[in-house]
């Protein structure tokens, strides 16, 4: 092998070696500059365990502490954020008229968009969101849109759960209110109802009537209207009012009035708490969600890597040239050996012919002598 790839031999085939390596490098560079580049934008987000836990509502909602179960719930929320509506919204931002698409074309487009988004759990509550695109700005924008939609889904799910729970608590208070006498301000009740009506009207301008917040507020408004009508017919206050939660008495004089009183007080306290929590949910950045690492504008493409293409081309060129030298040298050696064998056979034939001629002459001379 050392003899096969000696310095003299490499010098002998230097032109061929340089030509082969040059061809590979040239093809690799052309490919590196021709292939459409792909850019990757990554960010890391975290969903706090507090999203799934509510100390005041433990008797109503079971809390999950298992890390694997919490991770599964977080992952399901991430997946829910990448639904069909979100993928169609991204298409509209790209200027695609989705109304002209067939169902097959729409499904293929959504699949392509979904394949460019990758969500990987990195820790118990942290997830890396990666977006790959042929356009830097599009990759950056899509990553930010994914984060925004995750926040929307988180808030909608939590808001739906809290508003449903609040509606249940308010309904329970309503069933208890005929036995409760609470002197409270009827004007405060009306003010609260007016505030709710304004919130519903504002939400309907931005969302449909089926939006979870709209439905929840309309249920709450209906509950307040019922309580207001009862209180207007009896007393200026309302048992269901969040503002009126003290100075109440049991009307029926039951022996269980103390327990009844405690339950009612606890429900009112929870209703107050739920109102505070639901109001706090309107913040743009909820406390249970945080962006650990913000998406950064990509400076270079992840593919193709020009340096990697150059290294690969050099290695392949060197390997191919060595194979070429080995094959060429082996072929040359076989050719030389064949020529030598042919020459030796020719010499043997000449020698035999000479000997035969000499014998013939000798026999002729002997015949003449006799």
For the structure shown, list the relevant keywords.
single chain, 370 residues, Alpha-Beta Plaits
Write the layout of secondary structure elements.
Elements (H helix, E strand, L loop, with lengths): L6 H6 L1 H21 L4 E9 L19 H15 L2 H10 L9 H13 L1 E5 L4 E8 L2 H41 L3 E2 L4 H21 L5 H23 L14 E2 L6 H24 L8 E5 L12 H64 L1
Antiparallel strand pairs: 1-3, 1-6, 2-3, 4-5
Describe this structure in words.
The protein is an alpha+beta fold and 370 residues long. Among the domains are: 13-35 and 304-321; 39-182 and 245-293, EIF_2_alpha (Alpha-Beta Plaits, 2-Layer Sandwich), CATH 3.30.70.1130. Helices cover 64% and strands 8% of the residues. It contains 10 helices and 6 strands, in the order H-H-E-H-H-H-E-E-H-E-H-H-E-H-E-H. It has helices at residues 7-12, 14-34, 67-81, 84-93, 103-115, 136-176, 186-206, 212-234, 257-280, 306-369, and strands spanning 39-47, 117-121, 126-133, 180-181, 249-250, 289-293. The strands form 2 sheets. A 4-stranded antiparallel sheet has the order 2-3-1-6. A two-stranded antiparallel ribbon has the order 4-5. A hairpin with a 4-residue loop joins strand 2 (117-121) and strand 3 (126-133). Helix 4 packs across helix 5 (103-115). Mean pLDDT is 78; it is low at 180-184 and 234-256.
């Amino acid at each position: 092998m050392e003899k096969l790839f000696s310095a003299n031999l490499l010098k002998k085939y230097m032109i061929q070696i340089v030509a082969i390596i040059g061809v590979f490098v040239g093809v690799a560079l052309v490919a590196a500059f021709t292939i459409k580049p792909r850019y990757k934008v990554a960010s890391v987000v975290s969903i706090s365990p507090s999203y799934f836990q509510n100390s005041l509502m433990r008797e109503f909602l079971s809390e999950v502490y298992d890390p694997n179960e919490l991770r599964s719930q977080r992952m399901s929320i991430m997946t829910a954020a990448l639904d069909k509506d979100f993928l169609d919204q991204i298409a509209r931002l790209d200027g695609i008229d989705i109304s002209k698409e067939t169902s097959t074309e729409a499904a293929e487009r959504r699949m392509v968009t979904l394949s460019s988004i990758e969500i990987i759990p990195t820790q118990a509550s942290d997830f890396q969101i990666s977006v790959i695109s042929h356009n830097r700005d599009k990759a950056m924008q899509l990553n930010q849109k994914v984060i925004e939609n995750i926040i929307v889904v988180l808030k909608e799910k939590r808001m739906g759960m809290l508003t449903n729970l609040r509606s249940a608590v308010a309904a329970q208070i309503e069933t208890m209110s005929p036995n409760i006498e609470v002197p409270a301000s009827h004007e405060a009740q009306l003010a609260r109802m007016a505030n709710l009506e304004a919130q519903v009207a504002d939400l309907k301008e931005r969302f449909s009537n089926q939006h979870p917040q709209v439905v929840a507020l309309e249920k709450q408004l209906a509950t307040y209207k019922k309580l207001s009508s009862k209180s207007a017919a009896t007393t200026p206050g309302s048992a269901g009012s969040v503002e009126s939660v003290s100075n109440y008495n049991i009307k029926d004089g039951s022996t269980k009035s103390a327990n009844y009183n405690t339950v009612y007080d606890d429900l009112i306290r929870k209703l107050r708490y739920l109102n505070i929590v639901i109001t706090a949910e309107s913040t743009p950045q909820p406390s249970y969600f945080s962006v650990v690492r913000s998406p950064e504008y990509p400076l270079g493409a992840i593919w193709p890597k020009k340096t990697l293409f150059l290294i690969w081309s050099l290695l392949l060129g060197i390997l191919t040239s060595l194979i070429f030298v080995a094959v060429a040298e082996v072929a040359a050696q076989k050719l030389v050996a064949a020529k030598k064998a042919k020459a030796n056979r020719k010499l043997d034939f000449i020698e035999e012919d000479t000997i035969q001629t000499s014998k013939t002459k000798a026999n002729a001379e002997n015949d003449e002598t006799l």
